[in-house]
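User: Could you check the structure of this?
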Amino acid sequence: MKTIAVIGCGRIANLQHFPALSQIEGIRIKYACDIILSKAEKAKEDFPIIEEVIADYKVALADQEVEAVFVLTPNYTHYTVTMDALKAGKHVFCEKPITVNYALSKEMADEANKQGRMLNIGVCNRYQKSVEMLAEWNREGKFGNIYHIYCSFRSFRSIPGLGGDFTTKAQSGGGVLIDWGIHFLDLILYVLGGAKLHTVTCDAYSEMAKDMKSYKYYGMWAEDTADIENGTNDVDDYITGHIRTDKASISFNGAWAQNINKDEMFIDFLGDKGGARLAYGGKFTYYSGETLEEINPEYDIPNMYLCENKAFLESIDTGVKTKSHIDNILESAKLLDALYESAGAQKEITLP
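Assistant: Sure, the predicted structure tokens are below.
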């Protein structure tokens, strides 16, 4: 029996991780923790696997029975909570992004290795069946040479929690790029198989809610965290850029909010033997350059959160670093930093 604690009982915990953890045999969730205790209490009502609720995560870190913790808190707290947990001898699963910048992310990786503890990051798409298949097909040479990848993560007026943590750079580290873009760009680097970054150029915009009180929308994700009257909006709501790697070039456009009422969430992989369009979160279509066939593979897509949680818990026993171990994710954190640096400096950035 593996004893764990879940720190942070917000949306990602209740919508994804608690349901997934409830399906895994051989674990007990001894603690559910949230600084707003009522959130932890509500989680305990909804998920009977939870044994106790606490407001101070250090209670769980002091408990010798707790072997691992899930850090599902806002971005800016990832560093402190994770570092405290590692120093307390716990294995850690931390939701994406690792934290708000690359330097702190590297410190977290170094601490995990120093303590001899597993630290996995919630890049769930690495466990999405379509992404796994695309990576395998690339290794098998079905695309030939993938020379370019284009991705779009654009939506119509969907800024989350306007004025709250999501749109306050000091809390989140950024906007649509760090929130949505990390998922797209990380899975692209995974499919490419460890691409080395060369140069990036990026432009970032915050145009759609400069006057938060006049911002119009149909619905707002995380609206309970919004503070339109008194809050802050200093992050990107639109992002565009170009990345050069040793394996392929990558271009992207992302928008939390655009004045085009279309959700455009897809990734195109362009190879000299074949190509594919992946519908984000769904399946892909393969286009053969040799037979000119359009192929729609038939397969099931298991719950990727369940898969990533199982992989983390199993890695504690095996000692094998999985594809979502922090050591395998640092390049994505480095990429985010470089893109934001390019946007701020209005110039191309060369990575060492």
